[in-house]
Protein 1
Amino acid sequence: MNKITILGSGDTLGTPVVGDHIQQIKTKRTRFGLLLEINGKKILIDTNPDLREQCLRLGLDLKTIDNIFVTHTHPDHVNGMGEFFYRKEAPIPTYHLEHPLINSHTDSFRYLEREKVLNFLAFENYQPIKLENGMVVTPIELNHGFPCSGFVIEFDNTKIGIVSDTNLKLKEKSLDLLNNCDILFADAFSEDLEQVSSLYDRCGITTPNLENEWFHMTISEAIDLQRKTNSKKLYTVHMSSFMSSHDKLVDKYQTDNVVVGYDLCEIQI
Ligand SMILES: [Zn+2]
Ligand SMILES: [Zn+2]
């Protein structure tokens, strides 16, 4: 049985945010990651800083991971890479975007390559990668204000779209490739931009010009992306601490075709 697990559904800071964690916050979200178990192979999307806790909760042994794909090198997506420690028969292929910024960030983890634990392989957006389990992974350019890729994954007449960190202003080429996904995982950072301003206020940081310098989507924009790409089912991910509680988000947004994502949510395919 093929399966996808949302390892973490949270944003950069997680929910609750450290410092606010003394409040009674019902919803908990660890940082973003997905585990794909397809045709007998395990593929990990991102190595987030909560990977250790996610593995312990799920009973996942990292020695069983066959491939890793990195969306980008912001800390919430790669800082758990050090959890990989055991050398396997062959190092785990670890795919990342070929870009000077990404290359320099992955340098911190080169020791894992020297120890033959991981094998870093650079990809270019829009160049499909074929895996031995019959999966074809096509990286697509996102709009995150930093080099960042989404993935379109195809196998056995099934299409999965992964768009973790981006705003809605995507290139036509990316939108075309995302067309007709059976399942779309999309960035739903906030319910509206006021929540983003409140985050910046709380941190004492000047709010950027949210019209032009904001590189995530609201939950409504994630639903717009689902409509635009004619994708059958949407799972929202990369959600922030200042959104409503999970139950309230479900009441407000969940339908037969839209699922508010949560940690360790399992999707049978
Ligand atoms: Zn992120
Ligand atoms: Zn990011």
Protein 2
Amino acid sequence: MRTRLLLLLTLISAFSFGQTNFKVQVPNGMNLLMGNYNPADYTQNSPITAPSAILTGIQNGVQADSLFQILLKLESFENRNTGSDTLSATTGIGAARNWIESKFQDYSARNENRLQTGFFQFDINVCNMTRHKNVMAILPGTDTSNKSFIIIEGHFDSRCETACDVLCDAPGMEDNASGTALVMELARVMSQYSFPQTIVFMPTTGEEQGLYGALSFAIFAQQNNLQIEAVLNNDVIGGIICGNTASPPGCPFPDHIDSTQTRLYSHGGFNSVSKMLARFIKMEYEDEVLPNAAVPMNLSIMSAEDRTGRGGDHIPFRFRGYPAMRFTSANEHGDAGVTDPNYHDRQHTTADILGVDTDGDNQIDSFYVDFNYLSRNAVINGTAAAVLALGPEQPSFTAAPVPNGIQVQVTDPNNYGTYRLVVRTNSPDYDTLIIFQGTQATIDPGVGGAMFVSLAAVDGNQLESLPNEEISLLSVGIEEESDGPSMPTLLQNRPNPFDDATIIGFNAPERYTGKGAIIRITDVNGKVLSEIPKAVESGINEILYQHGFGVEGVFFYTLIINEEVIDTKKMVFAY
Ligand SMILES: [Zn+2]
């Protein structure tokens, strides 16, 4: 009985967020995070101020060889399990985090000691270890009137087949030395520049057992009203070889190579701030990097928050209202299904190594992490974070359909004067970007039917803000009808066809608020595959439907409210 009680208590503590004793162990760290400091104390001598020069500097500054050297060193710690040794100077998670922090200090010393480095400490029992530390480097912004900051993060802990095996060889190169190296390389490069907004580089711990490092900082941020504008989480971001069991939606076949695609995962559909962040990252890549990119990258805005059945460090931030997303390579070597006797992939095993020596000279010459791919992903992160930190603040706006387009009205205390309308129809991606001047405009969106629009401010340097939350023109249009709509309307799923997950929406009039709706999924024979409940809200309602990977064909979805069938539509699975 006692054992069971203990197990129960352990489970309760895991789910009731029993973290305590949060401590920012960075000089003046708490004030930096709150925006309560004198920027003059962190000012750079003769900083480069032209945003275009800073963005070019980031693109040229990120070095594949520098990433390689970081990975080599991270591999040498043998085991970075959250419960592993903290006393050794050479192996275990303690040595690893101290080395990462010492590298942050080096970067700082090379740039007038502006980067403030240290740890974020918290207490909770994970793998019999009670005290844990994320590593932190804070680059203080030059303008404290905007107190929000940007986080670039990736977990540095690793694991083998057994979650708390602290003695195995757990190199964790793809998962997630790749993300750790990316965060460190951006700290090195970006700390050579000055940004109005503060940027926080944070390798996290405890991810493999329950996102503990990210969760602790997210709770701490919420408790202290810290303003986080965006969280860019990098997890499994350097591999390009498809395993036999890549997490769905996965890659097409084993050993398939893909070094030009990256998946951007984020929560929600219509009006999700996290999905707006993912779209913004893609826009900035296409605006600022792609025109001069030696190897063009294709960024996929994924419907779901993560791969099927998986999760990551962005989730605890999103859960507390902070915009947060995850970068993951298109091809993953495994789905972490290590308990399956037939699992032969590398993820979450002792085989997650940097590469192999094929000619017997004791030097790795065939790599599982592609350093050029990893450096391209670092540039994508760095560019988005830099534009956020350099660019204008968000305006607010209203939009309504008129006979010749969309009537847009902007409210902008900063009077930037130039704005960008982001138009989206039937996919998680945006369809059209339209620039206009002035705070009032009638705009032809170039597409018809139901659409979602959002708005970004554009400043004198042609940088744009994070776009605002979306407005659904369908609901605006219906609300403007004289008597209001009489019935809910089922919308076409987006995207369609789709491979793994799709968003099914319906528009409901005010008087349906609070009623119980069901989305029923059926196959061509009428067999019910799933029923998803949803409490009706006025306007656009959405559910995410994940059918699992590898099914093809035509299926149907039906909207039922209070046992009354409203409508049925067809959707197509493809992969
Ligand atoms: Zn991971």
